[in-house]
Amino acid sequence: MTTEDPARGTTATTATTATTAGRATAAGETAVAAEATAMGGTAAAGADTAPSADTAAEECRRDARRVDKWSIGWAFLALGMWGWFAFLLLADYGPERTSYRGTDRLCRGPLLDPTQSAPACREDALHQWPALLGILALAVLPTIAAAAAAVYAKLLSRVAAAEGGAGRPQSAGGLGR
User: Fold this and answer.
1) Are 37 and 61 members of one domain?
2) Do 71 and 150 have their domain in common?
3) In angstroms, rounded to a whole number, what is the distance separating the alpha carbons of residues 120 and 124?
4) 86 and 121, same domain (yes or no)
5) Is the torsion defined by CA of 82, 85, 90, 94 positive or negative?
6) Is residue 81 part of a domain?
7) 167 burial level (CB within 10 Å; 0-12, 13-18, 19+)
8) CB 163 within 8 A of CB 57
9) Owning domain of residue 12
């Protein structure tokens, strides 16, 4: 049985089916279809309704929170890699040497002394410029990922605010009070 509501512009389809307890009435199914129609969409018996604007806005907010958490993770990874790069660039390394001034390392950091004279300093591959530039390139990747995820999370939160606020009046001149 098909019922049309011209005032709402919706159509609800009902059918009577036999059950073990008895026969369902067309009036009961019409009530279920009317309830589904009142929730915001056209309904057929047993059909799902379309998501409302509030549901889409909430989903957008949930995605924004999830992406924001990922951006924080990427930022921590980037900070760790930048810290490792700075440590390798600035820290003294190599065998210890003792003098009247105390004990220190034979080799200075590559940024402090770019031309190492001792052969022991040139043997440590991780403190040489090609390796340091490779670590720098690897540190840039999570930095870019963190920035992109943060921008995308901000965009999603603004989209959610726009979707959720479609029925709310806007303040004059864009100034919120």
Assistant:
1) no
2) yes
3) 7
4) yes
5) positive
6) yes
7) exposed
8) yes
9) 2-44
Do both 39 and 60 map to the same domain?
Answer: no
Query: With contact defined as beta carbons under 8 Å apart, do 121 and 107 qualify?
Result: yes
Q: Is 120 within a domain?
A: yes
The answer to whether residue 96 sits within a structural domain is yes
- Higher-pLDDT residue of 39, 116: 116
My answer on whether 16 and 69 are in the same domain is no
Each residue's pLDDT tens digit, 9-20: 555 444 443 443
Average pLDDT for residues 31-46, to the nearest whole number? 48
Q: Is the CB of residue 142 less than 8 Å from the CB of residue 78? A: yes
Q: Tally the domains of the chain.
A: 2
Residues 69 and 107 in one domain: yes
Pairing of strands 43-44, 93-99: unpaired
Two structure tokens written together for 95 = 């065998």
Q: Is the dihedral of CA 33, 37, 43, 46 positive or negative?
A: negative
pTM of the model: 0.57
Contacts of 141 (CB under 8 A, 6+ apart): none
Q: What does the pLDDT look like over 73-110, one tens digit per residue?
A: 999 999 999 999 999 999 888 777 777 777 777 888 88
Question: What is the DSSP-derived secondary structure letter of residue 6?
Answer: T
Q: Return the biggest CA–CA distance within the chain.
A: 103
Q: Classify residue 173: in a domain, yes or no.
A: no
